[in-house]
UniProtKB/TrEMBL annotation, chains A, B:
It comes from the Bacteria. PANTHER family: HTH-TYPE TRANSCRIPTIONAL REGULATOR RUTR, TRANSCRIPTIONAL REGULATORY PROTEIN. GO terms for biological process: negative regulation of DNA-templated transcription; response to antibiotic. It comes from Glutamicibacter arilaitensis. This is TetR/AcrR family transcriptional regulator. PROSITE patterns: HTH_TETR_2 (PS50977).
Length: 215, 215
DNA sequence: ACCTGAACACCGTTCAAGT
DNA sequence: ACCTGAACACCGTTCAAGT
């Protein structure tokens, strides 16, 4: 007797909801339609249940966003720390980190306030980076500030990804902003994507600067 | 005849709402109770009008947040660019910038997507920084990436300000994260506030790194 | 244990009606 | 021109009732 037949016969169906199924459906909805249209009602509909059913498995929408975050963290590549030197590894890891959250910007405020102990994968990532920085010879007291600084830059840069391409359009104020207008024109001439260019430019400077602080 | 008497007499009162009054009331509400409880209904109540009345003056809540942003930008100190050398000026300006938006975190996603031409004060600030960087001798094509990188770090750091103090509590995973656990302990021993410490640490590295790129 | 349906307490926003 | 009051189209979440 199939599950559908059993349901038709009136037998109470077995639970169809669990963390895995909910999270995967949520991630699919988010990837397809973005976070603006991601609501508990739509998620419920896509799972074929009523919205209230979700609350037998998840405490709040914020909780669910944390589940998604934990899933998304798996996409960040930390394997470079085993292969490349510290500078190259930091550059590649940070780039991977930024690109992942550029696709999940609304998760950033959620993570920023989340104790790392609630996210095993985040904790594992921090451990890997901390180990690499210690091996490099960085002072113990500077490891956390270094990680936090990198993460702040990464999150800020991920958000910048959402900026419109003409964000620096100064057409109507050219006379009042001569230096900035010229700088915008010069950047446009030499590079395709301002956000990517600025990220790599800043990341290189930041990593170099952070690794230069030896005690 | 006072305005109140006129109203009592049934004469149509003159408009009580305008951008200035709305924005100032909004800023006061936000400063007192935070952004979570900042709603159009509450703002209307504090102004003594019905919620729908606001929409005769503002197109949307997002618009209103942009008005607040423009007001808040006035708090950022750019005067240092006239007094100190470029490095010191960038450090002080960035610190001022971060501290202002640490008190207005929910504005960050609004600004990040806002064309600068919609915010005169932001444009003015960019012009001042661009001028200083040009005077310093930075290549034209690197001025915008430098500003964007600094801003990304500033916004990310402002958000980090909202993190709980025990965000790095690894009590339950000490054995799995030896390096990170030790780094957290070391940082705690030497510094009071992780967020402030990390910001200054990263800012110093970033500014040094950005100014070192000479062509 | 897990689901449904109705309800609650909100949101931001629109709009006809008044002055 | 500007305001009110009612209404709309949503939210996230709770809870009694069912199986």
């Amino acid at each position: 007797m199939s599950e559908t037949e059993a349901r038709r016969a009136g037998r109470p169906r077995k639970a169809v909801l669990n963390r895995e199924r909910i999270t995967e459906h949520a991630l699919e909805l988010v990837s397809d339609d973005g976070y603006e249209s991601f609501t508990m009602q739509r998620l419920a509909k896509s799972l074929g249940v009523s919205p209230s059913a979700l609350y037998n498995h998840v405490d709040s929408k914020n909780d669910l966003l944390q589940w998604i975050q934990e899933l998304v963290m798996a996409d960040i590549d930390t394997s470079v720390f085993d292969e490349a030197d510290i500078k190259e590894a930091l550059l590649q890891w940070a780039t991977s980190y930024r690109n992942v959250f550029a696709r999940h910007i609304p998760l950033i405020p959620v993570i920023a306030v989340l104790p790392v102990s609630d996210s095993p994968r985040t904790l594992g990532m921090y451990e890997r980076v901390a180990e690499a920085l210690s091996d490099y010879g960085m002072a113990e007291s500077e490891v956390v500030p270094t990680i936090v600084a990198l993460e702040s830059f990464i999150f800020g840069s991920a958000m910048d990804t959402a900026a419109p391409h003409d964000i620096f359009d100064t057409r109507n104020h050219q006379d009042l902003t001569p230096h900035f207008t010229q700088a915008v024109a010069a950047q446009r001439r030499s590079k395709l994507n301002t956000s990517d260019d600025s990220f790599q430019h800043g990341l290189s400077a930041l990593v170099t600067g952070l690794l230069a602080i030896r005690s």
